[in-house]
Each structure stands twice: as C-alpha cells, then as structure tokens.
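User: Can you predict the 3D structure for this chain?
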Amino acid sequence: MQYFSHPFPRRRSLAGRIGNINIGGDAPIVVQSMTNTDTADIKNSVKQIAILYRSGSEVVRLPIDRNESAAALPHIREQLDNIGIHVPLIGDFHYIGHRLLANHPACAEALAKYRINPGNIGFREKHDKNFSAIVETAIRYNKPIRIGVNGGSLDQEILKKLMMNKSAQEIPYSNIIQEAIVQSALISAQFSEKIGLPRNKIILSAKVSDVQELIAIYTTLATRCDHAIHLGLTEAGMGAKGIIASSAAIAILLQQGIGDTIRISITPEPKGERTYEVRIAQELLQVLGIRKFLPTVTACPGCGRTTSSVFQELAKKIQDYIQENMPIWQGQYPGIETLRIAVMGCIVNGPGESKHADIGISLPGIGEKPAALVFIEGKQVAILRHNISDEFKKILIHYIKNRFDPNKSSDKN
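Assistant: Here is the predicted structure, written as structure tokens:
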C-alpha cells in the first residue's frame, strides 16, 4: 500500500527576505493580504493593517498611488512599530512609482518590498527608464521587488512581438497571451539583474482571472526560473465563486510544489471583513497539510438523524471560541495549532470521529438518549446532558492547559 506524505515536495526557489520574513528556499509559504483603505488615511490604514496582521497576514501590501499616499507611509510604519506590529509593508506601485519613490525617500526606506507591474510603467524607452529607476531605488535601500504581471495590464510590446511571429497564426490566441505573460515576468527579472539587483531579491507573479490559464501560466513560469513565486488568482470574484476559484487554482499549483507566498483575492461583501481572505489562505494551506494555523475542527454536515439546531449551534460556538482565543492561546500554549477537535451530530459517525480526534463530542441524534459523549484521546471521559456547550468548553480548556501549557504537568486527563 502506498502512503502519501505532506507537505508536498517544494520547487526549489531562491531564498530571500521581505523585511523580517523569510521567503523561498525552505521557508514556510507566506500568507499575505492587501489593504482597501486609502493609504493617505493614516489612522484607518494603521487600524486595518493591525487587524490583518493579528488575523495572520504575515506581510501586508498597500497601494501607493499619489504623493499623499507616499508621504503617509513612513507615519504608518512608525505608528505600527509603536504598538509592536512589525509586519513588513509592501508598496504597490503603478504608472508613477518611479517618481513617488524618488520624491519620497522616507517611503522608499520604510517599505519592505516594492511591487512593480511591468505592463503599466510606460512604453518603449520610458518603460525601461522608469523601470530602471525603481530597481535602482530598491538596490539603494536594499529592498526586494515583486514583478507582478497581470493579464489585464499586459506589456503590449511583448504581445505585439509574439503576434508578429510567423508561427503565431497556428497558435491559439489564448496561448499567445499566456506566453506573453510568462515572458514579461522573465524579461523584467533579467533586466533587473542586469541593473544590479540580486536574483534572490526578485519575486515573480503572473496573475489572470481564469483558473485553467493561471495553472498553465504558473506551471510554465516555474520551469523557466528559480525565483520565489507569489501565487494568486486575480479578480477571483465574490462569495463562493471567488473562494472556490482561488482555492482550486492555488491548491493545484501548491500540490505541484509551486508557490512561496499566496494571497486570496476575493471581493469582500459590502462592509465585510478584510480578514476573510487571510483566513481562507490559512485554511487552504492547513487542509493541504502544508502549514498549521488553528486547531482543526471536524464537524459533520448534519442530516435528518440530527437535532440540527443544537448540533449547528454547538459547532459554531466551538469554532468561534477557538478563533476568538487563538491570539492569546498561541502565546500561552505552544503547538496548540496541532490540536484536533471533533463536533459530531449523532451516533453513526460521532463516536468514531470523536475517538480519532484529540478531543471530541458526539451529540445525541433524533431518537437517541439525550446525552452527549465526550472523548479524549480515544477514551470516553464524560457524558453531558445539561449546558452542553459551556460544559464542553470547560473540558476543552482543561485539556488544552494540561497538554500545551509548558508550565503544567504532562497529565492530559
């Protein structure tokens, strides 16, 4: 019998750093996000970055689109440092990034990385001049760059050259677009190295909004370079569509060993939490067995055998309880992210799944005795009949303290 191991074999990329975060090589795959506040609004930008960081975003990208944004960035950095949040900040530059970095040296110094889109930084001679200016600034301040190619703003000069090729008439247009995206990233990386930027300070991304095209592009890109690669499906959409599309594309690439940092670019619901994209990225890495962020909660979907409201309410309460307490627990209980919890709805799979988890509860289904069985490491330890949610939380926190508190004894019961 063949057994599968995790994590998946990683493509060997160059090791580098973004501020205080290792990327590429043997480093864990980094989760990142992007603000949707006006960067010039220092107060709200600091607030959102702090929330994103505390939710698990290991680097945060901000749009630097005008002088006011560039001027605000050093103050954002300072205020974050003052409250103990040293998350690396990435500047997202388009069109006038070369001017903003030149006119605001404090911004250039405060950022941990610059993101450049080679498709919208000018044409012909202006393109090379503007691109060079940003790379030279990165060299001056010892910063890495991300060359972020996007299908919606593709370098038209590269596309035109490919289209003029005699064999292009026999190649589907979509394939030409894909090749143009890959070439744009590689040519820009080579140009950056020629200017003097070290190879391990160049990160590449090549985003489109179609799942199959994204997989094809990144698979090709990964075979042609050893740079660290940032994964993301751009303009993924809203709700279930955005989550499924991003997860499908990125999971396939991760399984091939491609990717050193990821972002889930979903459209948030009106007034929705920006942290949602961070939680999805973490959950994706966790279910693939690549990284651990939170205790795993196994819960059945519920059916006609379960008392649905009781089961659903308990599953949600336990999930919320874990998420609310994890910022504290992570500091108190090293290794708690490996904890496995089962919240099951009836006798069919409930006891079995609960026994397989570190700690689990099996609720009574319709027609069963009104008693919830609690299991710890395969052994039944309690029967709950009243205040099930509160009583199970007490048993859960007792188990967590005994198992993960370094100051406690090894007694887990």
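The chain has a mean pLDDT of 91. The two ends are 35 Å apart (CA to CA).
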